[in-house]
C-alpha cells in the first residue's frame, strides 16, 4: 500500500508534546525517594513514549519541492534530493531490504538515476543499504576522510558490546514489552545488516567541500559529534540542512549504554552551533521527523547546542570543585528554559549518563576520593553490609521491604549484595532483582534505560546470566 506524503509536521508534534509536558510531566516521589530524571508514574511514561512514536511513523515527507525524506522505514532516515539529471541520496538505512522499500516509495517522486550517495557518518543504520539505490551507472559515494571510526577503536570489547546493544534497543523483547528505541521504532528489519554497504569513493577533508551534483549546489561540512567521522550537508539554494545524527528529536545520546568510546561533547556542541549559523529553513535529522519551519529549525539547533554545552560546563565546574561523578550525575540539570523543549526530552540520551561519560572522558575512572582507590571486593562488601544490617536474614528482609514499598533502585542494590552471600537465599535475590528491574522499567520514558531493564530481567528469569553477571 503506498505511503502518501505526510501532512503531519514536526512543529505540530512539538506543540502537542509541550502541552503534554506542561500537564503530565512532574517530579515523582515514592517512599520518600526522588526518582531519576527519566522516571515518572507508569501511565505517564507510556503516554510519553507513545507520543514520541509519531516521530518515526513510516511515511515520505516532502521537505521542499525537490527534497524528500523517508521516515520510519528503519531506525534512521534516508533522503532524496532531486536534481536536473539525477538524484542524490543522503544515508542508506541498515540493509538492502529496508533501503529497497524506502527507495520504491521515494521513486514515486522521481525516476531519475542516482548520481551520488552521501554517508553522514559510519553507524551501520546509515550505510548498510547503499546497493539498493544503485542503477546501471555506479554513483559517487561521499564520506569524511576518517570514515569508519564511529565506534572508536575498542573492537576488542565487541562480544559484550553486542549483548549490551541487544539490551539497549530491546531487540529480543516480546511485543507486550516493546515501545520504541527513543529515536526509532521498536521493530526493524535487521537480518541483512550491512549487506548493501558500498565503500566511499570521494573522501571529504576537514576543510569540507562545495560542489554541484546533478545541477544541485551542495556543501559538505565536517562536524564531529555523535561520531568523529560525522558531517552535515547543506543545500544553500533550498536552505535545507541534513544534520545526520548530530541532531534528532531527543536529548542527544552523549553516551550510549551499550558501550562506546568517549564522544567529544564539546565538539558536538560546536558542530550543532555551526549548523544553526547557516539559518536553515528546513532541518532533516538523522532520525525522527524533519522540521519545516525556519524559526523552529534555527531555535532547535541553537538550543540543542546550548543544552550540550551546559551539561559539559556544569560537569567541568563540578569536577574542578572536587565533586565525583555520582554526585554530579544527580546535580547537573538542563537549564530551566530548555528543560521542556520537546526535542530535548530524554527519550534517547540521558543527562546523568552524559555527565558520567564526560567525567570519565576527561579524567578516567578515578573520582579523586582515596576511598575509591582500592574498594572492597563485592563479596567482602556484601558480608559487611549484612553484618551492619544485623545478619543475612535482616539484610534480606530489608531487600524485600524495599521491593514491597516500590523502592526499586534500593531493592536492586540490596539484591546485588544478598546474592554474594553464601548463607543467603540467592534465588530470592534473583527474583527480587527481576521484579525491581521491571518496576523501574515501567516508570522509564528513556527508551534505552527501559529496554535495558526489561531485557536484563528477561535474561535473569531465563537463566541466561551466570553468577558473575548477576
Automatic annotation (TrEMBL):
A Pfam family recorded for this sequence: Alkyl_sulf_dimr
Residue ranges of every copy of the Metallo-beta-lactamase domain listed in the record: 75-287
Gene3D superfamilies per the UniProt record, alphabetical: Alkyl sulfatase, dimerisation domain, Metallo-beta-lactamase domain
Highest taxon of source: Bacteria
MF (Gene Ontology): linear primary-alkylsulfatase activity; protein dimerization activity
GO-annotated biological processes: dodecyl sulfate metabolic process
PANTHER family: ALKYL/ARYL-SULFATASE, ALKYL_ARYL-SULFATASE BDS1
Protein name, entry field: Metallo-beta-lactamase superfamily protein
